[in-house]
C-alpha cells in the first residue's frame, strides 16, 4: 500500500493542523483516528494501513495531529489546548476534507472528543471505537499522566529514549521488546536543532494543572449516551489504570449491544497494532459501514 499523504488544514483561528491521509479519497467510507493527549497521528499507522489497504473494502483513513502535537502548529497560548478548541479543530478538518459521516477511533483524549462530538454533531458519526476511555476516568491514571507529560528527560539518542520510555511504562506494557520501545521512542521524540525533543508542545502540561485529584471528575454518561444511535466498541487494556473494569460493565449495562475487547498485557493505552486487534476493529468498521445510510454513495 502507498504511504500516507500529509495534508494541512486551517483551524478556525488560522493555525495549521496536520492530517495523515491514507487510502483513496473516493473510498466508500471514511475512518477518522483521534490520538491521546500527548500523542500523534503516527500511533495509528499500522491500523490505518490495515483499514485503508483492505482488499475488498479499501477505506479513506484520516489520522489527526491536534494543535501542539506532531506536525501541527504549536499554539502560542497553551490555554487553547482544551476540549472546546480541539473539538472545533476536529470539525474544521472533517468539513474541509468532506469526512462526515465517519467511523471514529478515539484513543483516550480522542475518545472523549468523539463523545463530545456525538453531542454537538451526531450526524458526523457512523460508529465509535473508544480506546481505553469511558465516561468515568480514574484519577490514579490521570495522576500518572500528569507526572510525565512535559517532564520527560531529554535523551541523547533514540536508544536512550527507548530506555526512558521502558522505565516509565514497563509496568503498563510488560511484554514489549527493545525494538518495540525503540519504535515508541521514534514516535515520541523528534530531532530538532541537534536535540531529541518530544513530538508535542511541553506546555501541554498546563492543561492538567487545575485538575483536583482529590475529587472525582465529572462523569461523561450524557456524552456516552449520545452515541446511542451508532454502534460502539470499547477497548480496554488489561493493565489500564485509567479505565476500570467496573466502568466497562456500567457501559455494557447501558448499552447491551456494546462490543468490548480487552487487550492482554497492555495498559493505557492499547497500541492497536496486533493482527487480532486490528482485525476486530476492521470487523467493527465493516459493521458500521453496513448500517450507515448512504455510505456506499460517498
Feature tags:
single chain; 298 residues; alpha/beta; Rossmann fold; eight-stranded mixed beta sheet; two-stranded antiparallel ribbon; 9 helices
Structure at a glance:
With 298 residues, the chain is an alpha/beta fold. 33% of the residues lie in helices and 19% in strands.
Outline the structure in words.
The protein is α/β, with parallel strands linked by helices. It has one domain (5-138, 216-293): Rossmann fold (3-Layer(aba) Sandwich), CATH 3.40.50. 33% of the residues lie in helices and 19% in strands. It is globular, with a radius of gyration of 18 Å. Residues 292-298 have low confidence and may be disordered.
Please summarize the sheet with the most strands: 8 strands, mixed
Strand arrangement within the widest β-sheet reads: 1-2-4-3-5-6-9-10
Order of helices and strands: EEEHEHEHEHHHEEHEHEH
Report the CATH superfamily.
Alpha/Beta hydrolase fold, catalytic domain
Q: Structural class per helix/strand content?
A: alpha/beta
Mean pLDDT across every amino acid position: 94
Rg over C-alpha atoms, rounded to the nearest angstrom: 18 Å
* Second CATH tier, the architecture: 3-Layer(aba) Sandwich
Query: Which class in CATH terms?
Result: Alpha Beta
Q: Could you say how many structural domains there are in total?
A: 1
Shape: globular
Low-confidence stretches: 292-298
Assign the CATH topology: Rossmann fold
Write the layout of secondary structure elements.
Elements: E1 5-10, E2 16-22, E3 30-34, H1 45-52, E4 60-65, H2 83-96, E5 102-107, H3 109-120, E6 125-131, H4 139-148, H5 158-169, H6 178-188, E7 189-192, E8 195-198, H7 221-225, E9 232-237, H8 245-254, E10 259-263, H9 275-291
Parallel strand pairs: 3-4, 3-5, 5-6, 6-9, 9-10
Antiparallel strand pairs: 1-2, 2-4, 7-8
Helix pairs in contact: 5-6
Amino acid at each position: 500500500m502507498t504511504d500516507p499523504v500529509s495534508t494541512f488544514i486551517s483551524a478556525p483561528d488560522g493555525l495549521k493542523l496536520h492530517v495523515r491521509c491514507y487510502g483513496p479519497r473516493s473510498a466508500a467510507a471514511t475512518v477518522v483516528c483521534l490520538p491521546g493527549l500527548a500523542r500523534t497521528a503516527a500511533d495509528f499507522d499500522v491500523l490505518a494501513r490495515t483499514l485503508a489497504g483492505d482488499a475488498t473494502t479499501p477505506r479513506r483513513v484520516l489520522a489527526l495531529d491536534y494543535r501542539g502535537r506532531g506536525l501541527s502548529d504549536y499554539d502560542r497560548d497553551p490555554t487553547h489546548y482544551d476540549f472546546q478548541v480541539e473539538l472545533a479543530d476536529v470539525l474544521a478538518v472533517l468539513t474541509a476534507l468532506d469526512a462526515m459521516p465517519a467511523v471514529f477511533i478515539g484513543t483516550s483524549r480522542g475518545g472523549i472528543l468523539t463523545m463530545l462530538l456525538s453531542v454537538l454533531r451526531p450526524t458526523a458519526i457512523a460508529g465509535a471505537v473508544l480506546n481505553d476511555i469511558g465516561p468515568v476516568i480514574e484519577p490514579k491514571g490521570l495522576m500518572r499522566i500528569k507526572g510525565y507529560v512535559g517532564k520527560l528527560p531529554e535523551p541523547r539518542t533514540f536508544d536512550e529514549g527507548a530506555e526512558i520510555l521502558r522505565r516509565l511504562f514497563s509496568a503498563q506494557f510488560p511484554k514489549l521488546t527493545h525494538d518495540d520501545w525503540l519504535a515508541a521512542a521514534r514516535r515520541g521524540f523528534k530531532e530538532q536543532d541537534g536535540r531529541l525533543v518530544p513530538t508535542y508542545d511541553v506546555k501541554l502540561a498546563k492543561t492538567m494543572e487545575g485538575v483536583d485529584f482529590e475529587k472525582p471528575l465529572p462523569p461523561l454518561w450524557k456524552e456516552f449516551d449520545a452515541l446511542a444511535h451508532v454502534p460502539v466498541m470499547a477497548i480496554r487494556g488489561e493493565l489500564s489504570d485509567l479505565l476500570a473494569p467496573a466502568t466497562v460493565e456500567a457501559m455494557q449495562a447501558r448499552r447491551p449491544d456494546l462490543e468490548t475487547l480487552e487487550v492482554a498485557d497492555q495498559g493505557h493505552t492499547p497500541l492497536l497494532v496486533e493482527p487480532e486487534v486490528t482485525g476486530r476493529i476492521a470487523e467493527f468498521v465493516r459493521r458500521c459501514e453496513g448500517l450507515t445510510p448512504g455510505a456506499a454513495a460517498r
